[in-house]
Every structure is written in structure tokens, then in C-alpha cells.
Amino acid sequence: MTDASVATGGPRPAIRLERLAGRHPGDDAWRPRFDHYVAVFEPALGPQEGPPASFDAAD
Fold this sequence. Notes:
Elements: H1 3-7, H2 12-20, H3 31-45
């Protein structure tokens, strides 16, 4: 996450804007962005595990 996403409450506002525009992202809409972050940061940080088991994309 970036400082901007923390300051705005995270990525949820973007999802809300998508829904207001009539687009309904799927439950795994986060996956492409996560895969990109893994490719960029994994060499320095080690393996990335994805969201915790308690993650609910519907929130």
C-alpha cells in the first residue's frame, strides 16, 4: 500500500467508484495488481502470501 491509499482509506474508494460507474469488479479483481506487486517486491522481501484467510472481497 502507498501512503496515498492509507490516507484515503485504502483501495475501497476506487472499488466504490467502479460500482458507481456501473462496473462490478469480480471477487478476484485484486489479483492482477497483487501479482504485479509480487513480481516487483518479492526479490527484496521474499515470498508474498496474498490476502489473509479472513479477507472478504465483498467488504
